[in-house]
Amino acid sequence: MTPTTPRPGPARNDDRNDAGSDARNDALTDVTGLRVGHATLTGDGFLTGTTVVLAPPGGAVTAVDVRGGGPGTRETDALDPRNLVQRVEAIVLTGGSAYGLDSASGVMAWLEERGRGVPVGGPGQVVPVVPAACVFDLGRGGDWRARPDASTGRAAVEAAAAAGLNSPVREGSTGAGTGALVGPLRGGIGTASTVLASGITVAVLVVANAAGSAVDPATGALYGEFFAGTGPVTYPAPAVHEAARKRLADLAAASGPAPLNTTLAVVATDADLTRAQAQKVAGTAHDGIARAVRPVHLLNDGDTVFALATGDRPLDAASPLALNEILAAGADLVTRAIVRAVRAADPAGEDGSRPYPAYGDLYGPYDAEARPTTP
User: Fold this and answer.
1) What does the alpha-carbon distance between residue 226 and residue 292 come to, in Å, rounded to a whole number?
2) Of 28, 59, 295, 320, which sees the most CB atoms within 10 A?
3) What are the DSSP calls for 123-187, one per residue?
């Protein structure tokens, strides 16, 4: 097992936007206070990892919505608005199916050491509530038992803590997205953000790992590009698409489809939301998955969306519909983040991932500098 060295994300523009906040990296970390850390395990049969979203000290209002028929989760019941816990300090997204949920134990221990969690007694007596969700990637690196564990979770949260505020986030085959597949293609991590007219920031991070496909079989274009609002849809040349179809058919005949999958997402905002409002954000964001992947929310998917609200900006109290712009943006950004995850996936074979090709293997390399940056 060889932990990989994270590659830098897109270059940051240090100008400031009209809302007065730092210019965007087009990433989850554009919600100030949130940090993202990846632990990536490859080699020696490993093709998996863990990603941690670390909230500011004191936590963030958090909610969840699960729509896949085969979810693997931990501590999601604690997020029900009817229950006790008001804020959480971290969210764990992990490979390894249900086995990989053990990575949350490492995050929990790290938080306890720093006195971060739900106070239950005297000084330092806390119980960190760490919601987690997993994707199925077992055996994709060659070893069925090669899975994230508590040490992987600790490495990911330490990476998050070490990252500066508003740092870029690596996309593609990293962290929880290392062994991800979307249909027959490699999936991975994708992220995106926007600043609304109100000045509120909405941002998303996804782990794209779906049983359905992200590619229109008639053209080779990505479904999500039809809905992401990022400009004209990119249509591959017919000859390129025909060659891609043949290669995928040969792979399917040799290995068959992956049996189990899941797409995970974290939708975050700096708006001051109630727990019920955050749950609505999580639910509506599933529409973004449905626009980018077909079919979706199957019995062999575990599609799960978390919502985080740091509370730095108030909603317009005079408007009962003020939440709508956040709901719409969250879904749009999930779609765009899935497109980015698929396009940013590492080529097949770089890390023992054969025979899983990336979209770029079939349709050409992905130019990160040419990515649209507004939904």
Assistant:
1) 9
2) 28
3) TT-EE----EEE---TTTTS-TT----HHHHHHHHHHHHHSPTT-----BSSGGGTT-EETTEE-
